[in-house]
Structures are given as C-alpha cells and as structure tokens.
C-alpha cells in the first residue's frame, strides 16, 4: 500500500512569528527619553560654554548680564537708563588700577588657581557669627559671574560660577582675566569698566590714574551704586588710604608667574 506524503509547507520570513522584542525595537521608555534629553542638554551646555570662553579670549565682551539687568531695573523703576561702557586694552589701563583692585578685592590673585580657599573659609566662619563682610570670591570668580551668569546666591549658580572660573583660568590666563574684569565690572550707576569709570569720576583717561585715584575706584567696588570715588564719605576715604598702603605690597605685576 503506497503512502502518500503530504508536502511540508515552506516557512517564509513573512509568516515567521516575530519575537516579542522586535515589537519594542526602536521604542524607548519615558525614563530613557528623559535620560537622553539631559545627556544631550549637558553636551550642548559644555559645547556652548567652552566655545564662548574661547571666543571671549580673543574678542572684547560687548555686554554682560548685569548690564542688561540694571537697564531693566532702571526702566521699570522709572529711572533714567544710563549706560556707559567702552572696551580698553589692558596695555592702556593704569597699572595703579590693576594693583588697586588686587589690593582691594583679591590679594592672592596672581598666585591662586581661581579660588582662595582661606578667604572662603574666613568668610564662612564670619558669616556664621553674623558678621557682615565681603565674600571670599576672587577676581576670577567675579569675572566668571559678571560675564557668563546672573547675580544670586543659590548653590546652583555658585556651582556654575566655579565651573566657569576653572574654564577661564585654564583658557584665558591671569592677564586676560584682569583685562575682562576691568572692562566689565560695575564701577558706578550705569558705569562699567575702567575707561568709563575714569572718565566718569576723574575726567581723564584710564592710563593716567594716580595711586589715590585708582584706590578711589577700587574702594567703591563692594557697592558702586551707593558709594562715590570722589567727594567720598569718611568710610570710603579710610578704604582708599588702606588700599594705597596695600598697593605697595603688591609690587611689580607679572601675570605669567605663579
């Protein structure tokens, strides 16, 4: 008796059962999407921030966030929106002013790597006792804040400030940090930078400041909208005298030496 064999149907790729994982291929969970979003955000942030620091190593900083904030404050406060800012190369800025801000704001500027941990510790302990003193921020930290960030005391902003401080210390170096600092810092109400400040306070150019005049500008930096470099209060006059004495201790400035 002959046995008839039934033909075995060929299994094609089309009718093969798809593995369960295939249906999920190309799909990400919400958590994975959030993770990749933050990774991309961080990469963009690092890329843009580093590129910005490199660009401002070579070109003047046209304006800072503080300049914009002050203009908005004055506009909505019904005050005159006054803005005076001109870039001046460091070669044309009086060495007396460079010494004065080091003596007044950051005595170890030429030797530290962006942070003065002794000053920070001293400021922390004094603040714990309820004493009011200026913060322990270095010129490098102040420059990073002025150029790239906003005013404030949150830990998040402080963290960004530390990040930008490291970048400018590595990429710019001390001389460029001082140049940007002296061209961007607030030195009066609506007055920014050494060129505008010397014209505003003394009616002269930034290269010809005497030690006492330079000390006058440096003395008002803690609150330049309240204090005056000329016609000063007794408090500011005492600060001027102290700064002039400390300027002698700064000695010759060499930005390339550590």
UniProtKB/TrEMBL annotation:
EC category: transferase
Basic residues bias (residue ranges): 17-26
TM ranges: 37-59
Reactions catalysed, as given in the entry: [GlcNAc-(1->4)-Mur2Ac(oyl-L-Ala-gamma-D-Glu-L-Lys-D-Ala-D-Ala)](n)-di-trans,octa-cis-undecaprenyl diphosphate + beta-D-GlcNAc-(1->4)-Mur2Ac(oyl-L-Ala-gamma-D-Glu-L-Lys-D-Ala-D-Ala)-di-trans,octa-cis-undecaprenyl diphosphate = [GlcNAc-(1->4)-Mur2Ac(oyl-L-Ala-gamma-D-Glu-L-Lys-D-Ala-D-Ala)](n+1)-di-trans,octa-cis-undecaprenyl diphosphate + di-trans,octa-cis-undecaprenyl diphosphate + H(+)
Major site of localization recorded for this protein: membrane
Pathway annotation: Cell wall biogenesis; peptidoglycan biosynthesis
Stored NCBIfam families: mono_pep_trsgly
Protein name: Biosynthetic peptidoglycan transglycosylase
